[in-house]
Write a structure and sequence with these properties.
Radius of gyration of chain A: 13 Å
Structural class of chain A: mainly beta
Strand content of chain A: over 45%
Number of helices of chain B: 0
Number of helices of chain A: 0
Helix content of chain A: under 10%
Order of helices and strands of chain A: EEEEEEEEEEE
Oligomer: heterodimer
Structural class of chain B: mainly beta
Low-confidence stretches of chain A: none
Mean pLDDT of chain B: 94
Shape of chain A: globular
Radius of gyration of chain B: 13 Å
Chain lengths: 111, 114
Amino acid sequence: GQQLNQSPQSMFIQEGEDVSMNCTSSSIFNTWLWYKQDPGEGPVLLIALYKAGELTSNGRLTAQFGITRKDSFLNISASIPSDVGIYFCAGQETSGSRLTFGEGTQLTVNP
Amino acid sequence: DTGVSQNPRHKITKRGQNVTFRCDPISEHNRLYWYRQTLGQGPEFLTYFQNEAQLEKSRLLSDRFSAERPKGSFSTLEIQRTEQGDSAMYLCASSFWGVNTEAFFGQGTRLTVV
């Protein structure tokens, strides 16, 4: 079946630093989504990408949909302590179909 | 609208008991999804509905699992004869069906089977 490889698994950074994480897939997706999850809570949608090559920003977050449709990355600029959490990428084959999730990137921000 | 609502938030049950979880989606959304998440992993797809029709079921959804969405609004997920391996976070999400649709998740139900 489809697999998403998300890296890195964890990151420990200082407040104010920039962060980059990425996902690669063995197959093509037509939508990429990035979620953030806090302990004991459900994932919260950060950014949705619908077109190969698309670059989308949401505040300090920027995400790109790879032109091969098999990868995506998420950048966080000027990190702050509330950025702490687990970040998941998710791919979707067609609009409204199931999501396939990566294994997550655990982000720790030291003040 | 307050988003996707799941009840209960936590459930502890003894092995062999049946449990039922409820999900109330965002009111105008016609698609509803169930996922399961174990510690340290990303959510895994279980099943989804468009209105009241169950369109897809994962092989993870064994015979002990059943999901319904009888009137195309809220949904229930029942697990019969629970096993310790069923311990997980059960997540519900909803979306529109159409072009460029995003799935929004509820807060989840944490199941512990003892």
